[in-house]
Write a structure and sequence with these properties.
By secondary structure, this protein is an alpha/beta fold. The chain is built from 15 helices and 20 strands. It catalyses: 3',3'-c-di-GMP + H2O = 5'-phosphoguanylyl(3'->5')guanosine + H(+).
């Protein structure tokens, strides 16, 4: 993945880092508040359902115990047995003995004045009858839940079904509804007519209306519905409270992520990252500056010079980005790209002109790259060239550590490549050092060529090269005066704007062909 794609991803990640933690903190606080709210409501509803089942089961158990009595009805012993039932079973208020639907006696009195029960409103799946009635021996206008077997009925206060405490942080309300008559039997009077109308609709077990959330649990056997509900206002209040806890954490995480993303973006936007992208994208092109014989101006080869094309179409000179490649460890990758480009653009031309060569600049790091000799050998064989057609230029610092550079240079020279010392006179080499180097040509730096008329250093460099029997290439020749001076002092080859600037491959081939025809 290229650094540019990473930058795009990092930019997206930066935007997410700004908004996502804060958004998550808002969502988490709302979710937690809602979860706490619904947990309170569901817990209360579950307790109410458990209480309802307990009351119903206890009433049925009391009826089974009454059915087990085998004595004469409405006798003192029978009345005592019914009183014991109403006393020992917590939710049973009264026990009655009936014949058909007519009460005969009860646990309260021997002779029951109650009118006959109507037909039961519900018959449960296990055969018990159920009524919602105001029948009682005391003349009270109070609804009771009556559950009966064949000969007995037990009366239960409907409040018993919903008499539970709330342990939540917000008020919870509860009501017991008759699903047949759609009326409230017991519980909170806060249940509005509009809410009751929605609750009585079959299907949903949870509705939201009038700023409140309702939880509905229906008991089809008994024809009852337990409704629990809570106002939404405490949910909003709790959400704001939790938001004050989550939001600072979200902001802190957001700041940390933004800091990390900005550092990553800065790193991806660094010159090194841009150069690495340019290498991977093969945006580094190679221009070629002709090298000629000074005596006759005939081309003998060219120096390959890397150029970095910018977005505006201009080219960045190598003296700007080569030091960056050296110090950032990208030089071997860049050199490999230059070598491959030299062969892909001029391989065919070199094959047609076996007397021509291309010199490629190497840095000290390239000498440590074990893949370079194999790459050169493979491409030379592929294009059917002579190794002597590829010369290798090293600056003087490339020779600074003989223990490292010596074996590598010797191996390249043994493979048939000519070795140049580039920018000679600007680095570390001395006469005694040069005597031990296996090199073929020295290149006189442009700074010495520019100073021919008023400095005496260049003649000494030329004399040194002659003493070591090394050929010379003068760089940066721009005037006829410089050319005549160099020819006079016996410099064999040269390059510079007097002949041609560095040219793209097609323009170089055209220039070279014209030069060869003219010669």
């Amino acid at each position: 993945m290229t650094n540019r794609r990473l930058m795009s991803l990092a930019t997206v990640a930066l935007v997410l880092a700004i908004f996502l933690p804060v958004s998550l903190s808002i969502w988490m606080s709302h979710r937690q508040a809602e979860e706490n709210f619904m947990n309170d409501l569901d817990m209360y509803s579950t307790l109410a359902e458990m209480r309802t089942q307990r009351v119903i089961n206890q009433s049925k158990a009391a009826l089974r115990e009454l059915d087990a009595y085998d004595g004469a009805p409405c006798t003192p012993e029978h009345l005592l047995a019914m009183r014991r039932i109403s006393y020992s079973w917590r939710y049973v208020r009264e026990a009655l003995y009936i014949n058909g639907l007519q009460p005969l006696c009860s646990s309260l009195q021997a002779d029951s004045p109650i009118l006959p029960f109507p037909e039961p409103g519900k018959i449960t799946s296990d055969g018990f009858r159920a009524w919602l009635t105001r029948h009682n021996d005391l003349g009270l206008a109070k609804y009771m839940v009556a559950i009966g077997s064949t000969h007995y009925v037990v009366m239960v206060d409907p409040t018993s079904f919903i008499d539970i405490l709330s342990h939540g942080t917000s008020p919870v309300y509860i009501a017991l509804i008759n699903t047949k008559t759609h009326q409230r039997i017991a519980g909170s009077p806060r249940l509005t007519a509009a809410s009751l109308a929605q609750i009585n609709q079959q299907g949903p077990t949870r509705i939201i209306t009038d700023g409140e959330v309702y939880r509905i649990q229906r008991d089809a056997d008994m024809g009852l519905a337990i409704v629990t509900w809570m106002a939404i206002a405490p949910l909003e209040k709790n959400w704001h409270r939790l938001l004050m806890m989550w939001l600072p954490l979200g902001l802190l995480v957001s700041l940390l992520l933004v800091f990390v993303m900005l550092r990553l973006l800065r790193r991806l936007h660094s010159p090194r990252a841009q150069l690495q992208d340019a290498i991977h994208g093969r945006e580094i092109t190679v221009f070629f500056q002709p090298i000629v014989e000074l005596d006759n101006g005939k081309i003998v080869g060219a120096e390959a010079l890397a150029r970095w094309r910018q977005k505006d179409g201009s080219y960045l000179a190598p003296d700007i980005f080569i030091p960056l490649a050296v110090h950032s460890g990208l030089m071997p990758q860049l050199t490999k790209l230059v070598v491959e480009t030299v062969f892909s653009t001029l391989g065919s031309w070199l094959h047609q002109h076996p007397d021509q060569h291309i010199s490629i600049n190497l840095e000290p790091a390239d000498l440590l790259d074990p893949t370079l000799p194999d790459l050169l050998a493979r491409l030379i064989a592929q294009w059917q060239l002579s190794p002597s057609q590829i010369a290798l230029e090293l600056t003087e610092r490339g020779f600074a550590d003989p223990a490292v550079s010596g074996p590598a240079i010797n191996a390249l020279r043994a493979a048939g490549h000519a070795i140049y010392i580039d920018d000679f006179g600007t680095g570390y080499c001395s006469l005694s050092y040069l005597q031990n180097l296996d090199v073929d040509i020295i290149k006189i730096d442009k700074s010495f060529v520019d100073a021919l008329e008023y400095k005496a250093v260049t003649p000494h460099i030329i004399d040194m090269a002659k003493a070591l029997r090394l050929a010379m290439v003068a760089e940066g020749i721009e005037t006829e005066g410089q050319l005549q001076w160099l020819k006079t002092y016996g410099v064999e080859y040269g390059q510079g704007w007097l002949y041609s600037k560095a040219l793209p491959p097609d323009a170089f081939i055209q220039w070279a062909e014209n030069n060869l025809r003219a010669a």
